[in-house]
Description:
Blueprint: E1 11-12, E2 20-21, H1 24-52, H2 56-66, E3 72-74, H3 75-82, H4 86-98, E4 102-107, E5 110-118, H5 120-140, H6 147-164, E6 169-173, E7 176-180, E8 186-187
Antiparallel strand pairs: 1-2, 3-5, 4-5, 6-7, 7-8
Helix pairs in contact: 1-5, 2-5
Amino acid sequence: MNIPEDEAEPRVVGGSAGRRSPTRDELRVWRTFTETTDLVKRHIEVELQQASGVSSGDYGVLLALSEQPDHRLRSSPLAEQIGWERSRLSHHLGRMERRALIARERASDDSRGAWVVLTDEGARVFRRASSPHLHSVQRLFVSALTAEQLAALDDAMRALAAQLEGSPTVQQDESTTLRVSTDDTPTA
């Protein structure tokens, strides 16, 4: 990202009094946030795959199902919980079903609907993957930060989540969601 030296102060965008672009320092923080988040996720995903043969997608589905009292969810709430499009989830569930990690059962109250159910094999795989995954999270994330830094990061993430709750979004594709401003100009 090329940011001119003289842009340490905010600029007003498009003549609109309420909108400004980020300062150089704010963009540096943004970039550090996105790049570091991606790096941590990649490291944890690689270690999860190497230690257990489970992908991060598998783990997300297994975790969501394991947290349900009856170990089952409908597809739409499952997709929402793990942050995936339904079509992506459907394809992934097919692969998991072939490996006997989940089963899909028709919903008795809805002829078009189905339940995604954690199988005994899926529960075993999840338990086997959880310990190395949690050790990776501890080593690669938690141990790198002080208790004060963790608390500050928690506060920051909660503020971001609160800002984004109910915010209008537009699905670009299965991996990108852009926030839409009040004048319908997509912003990253």
